[in-house]
Amino acid sequence: MAAQREWLERDFYADLGVSSDATAEQIKKAYRKLARELHPDANPGDTAAEERFKRVSEAHSVLADDAKRKEYDEMRTLMASGRFRADGGPSAGGFGGGAGGFDIGDLFGGGAGGGGADVGDLFGGLFGGRGRKTTAPRQRRGNDLETETTLAFRDAVQGTTVQLRVTSPSPCTNCHGSGAKPGTSPRTCTSCSGSGFVSRNQGHFGFSEPCPDCQGTGTKIDDPCPDCSGSGITVRPRTINVRVPQGVEDGQRIRLAGQGEAGRRGAPSGDLYVTVHVTADKVFTRNGNDLKVELPVAFSELVLGATVSVPTLDGTVGVKIPAGTSDGRTLRLKGRGVPKRSGGAGDLLVTVKVAVPSKLDDAAMAAMKSYAEAERSSGFDPRDGWAR
């Protein structure tokens, strides 16, 4: 309950330094800038920066998700209208009339009787799961995290495994995320009998809400772990092996389930999203699953025809240039492009480009003049029909 109220009382837009009508791209850019500035690796020992980093990450996890952002905005609008308050106190003209207003906790606790719909369903997605109508303790999933990696062009095309160094809230290694001192265990909360909820009456209605003694977890810790103070979470660096699939493109995101921020006291971890940046290659460019390469050739090779070696991802292959090929023509090599996840591969598109010598010796110059004369005598005009 306390966590839910805190979320609604916080201004996630202010945390990221953006306006409430900011676009998804503006939110993403603001988060990346702040995450780089506040990351624990860049601020060793700075607890204020670490706390700010957590707040920024939490704000981004809500505002970057369209559904969560919509629900968050709707709740903030309702709160701003004065119809109810996050602290559960009365609001003039609010729901409940003379019964003392409407407790925001009722929205998330759900009706205990009367057969009415669970109003918490409307906003369940924001606080971790829709349609909770059971008495199971609530566990808030850890926040999603984002990081980046840069790959060489050919590694991205062919697939590779990279190691990422991530510093983030992770399960405590001393208590293995339970929050209890090693050798002890959390005990069932006696106030809610382990359900995580307690019931109360408001006028003629009954409501259930998260247990204030255990904060809705269903358990209590008498002897907290000294390393994490009972949270089950510590901020530490860790190394993650990431398998990058073949054919990944520049700017593509890879989702690593359960590798994000740890949930409190054993709750599920969030996900880690890795944005891949791909460096340019000296030989190849890419168009979808096709690779493109420019092949330098001599004028005589185009006129007379030739077989030349062309680089591919797997070595070189011989390509036949037909006699009379024009400069700029593209030849297609089937199956020599980017591997497809569904099997097979794209094509390699080879564009021939005439390389003109900057200097010829006397013999070559004499031969070229003789060729030019023979070309004119044959009636060939390269500009015939041009610019008409």
From TrEMBL:
Cofactor note: Binds 2 Zn(2+) ions per monomer.
Xref: PROSITE patterns: DNAJ_1, DNAJ_2, ZF_CR
Functional description taken from the UniProt entry: Participates actively in the response to hyperosmotic and heat shock by preventing the aggregation of stress-denatured proteins and by disaggregating proteins, also in an autonomous, DnaK-independent fashion. Unfolded proteins bind initially to DnaJ; upon interaction with the DnaJ-bound protein, DnaK hydrolyzes its bound ATP, resulting in the formation of a stable complex. GrpE releases ADP from DnaK; ATP binding to DnaK triggers the release of the substrate protein, thus completing the reaction cycle.
SUPFAM superfamilies: Chaperone J-domain (SSF46565), DnaJ/Hsp40 cysteine-rich domain (SSF57938), HSP40/DnaJ peptide-binding domain (SSF49493)
HAMAP family membership: DnaJ
Name of the molecule in the record: Chaperone protein DnaJ
J domain: residues covered: 11-76
PANTHER family tied to this protein: CHAPERONE PROTEIN DNAJ 1 (PTHR43096:SF54), DNAJ HOMOLOG 1, MITOCHONDRIAL-RELATED (PTHR43096)
Domain CR-type residues, every copy: 159-237
Binding site for Zn(2+) 1: 172, 175, 225, 228
Cofactor(s) listed in the protein's UniProt record: Zn(2+)
Residues where Zn(2+) 2 binds: 189, 192, 211, 214
Keyword Manganese: no
Zinc fingers (CR-type) by residue: 159-237
Subunit structure: Homodimer.
Lineage: Bacteria, Bacillati, Actinomycetota, Actinomycetes, Mycobacteriales
Keywords: Chaperone, Cytoplasm, DNA replication, Metal-binding, Repeat, Stress response, Zinc, Zinc-finger
GO MF terms, alphabetically ordered: ATP binding; heat shock protein binding; unfolded protein binding; zinc ion binding
Gene3D superfamilies listed in its UniProt record: DnaJ domain, Heat shock protein DnaJ, cysteine-rich domain, Urease metallochaperone UreE, N-terminal domain
Protein family per UniProt: Belongs to the DnaJ family.
GO biological process: DNA replication; protein refolding; response to heat
